[in-house]
Amino acid sequence: MITRQQLERLAALKSDEGILSAYLTIDPQLMYDRNQPLTRFKGAVKSASRRLRTTRSPEVLEREGKRVLEFLSKWELIGRGLVIFSSQPAQIWETVSLEVLVPNFVDVDATTKTGILARVLDDYPPLVVAVVQKNNAAIYISQQRVSEETTRVKSEVPGKHEQGGWSQGRFQRHVEFHIAEHLKKFVEEIKELDRVQPFKYLAVGGTEETVNDLLKILPEPFSKKVIGAFSVDLKHETEAETLERAWKVWEAYERQAEQDLVEKAVDAAKAGDQGVVGINDTLWTILEGRVHTLLVTEGLRIEGSACLNCNHFSAKKFERCPICVGEAEKGDVLDRAIEKAFLDGARVKTVSGEASRRLTAEGGIGAVLRY
Ligand SMILES: [Zn+2]
Question: Which of 19, 188, 301, 340 lies 20 to 30 angstroms, CA to CA, from 238?
Answer without folding.
Answer: 188
